[in-house]
Amino acid sequence: MHEVGIMESALALVQRHADERGASCVHRVVLRVGALSGVDPDSLRFAFEVVARGTRAEGATLVLDLVPTLVYCSSCRCEFAGDRGAIFTCPQCGDLCGEIRSGRELELSRIEMS
Hints:
Elements (H helix, E strand, L loop, with lengths): L2 H19 L4 E9 L6 H12 L8 E7 L2 E4 L4 E4 L6 E2 L6 E2 L1 E4 L3 E8 L1
Parallel strand pairs: 1-2
Antiparallel strand pairs: 1-8, 3-4, 3-7, 5-6
Helix pairs in contact: 1-2
């Protein structure tokens, strides 16, 4: 489960920010997770609970902002929601499209601490 490694990295970053700001407690961690990021949200939540034990983030709320896949068609300039894959067919003109504008995100978006 690579979600544990991802969460270890995210929490290391959270801890570093808490250190820099002199925070003793982390209340909320918000991650943006794209549909194509290759991360399972439920596994990420479980990994957070395990990895946060004994840290300032223990007991904190993990919020996952799930980002849908958004694809752009350069032929007709249409933006549309995409399903899984790397090449998509434009629902407007039928051309093949590969420009993914969102859905690959995996980023620490916000930390609430005191």
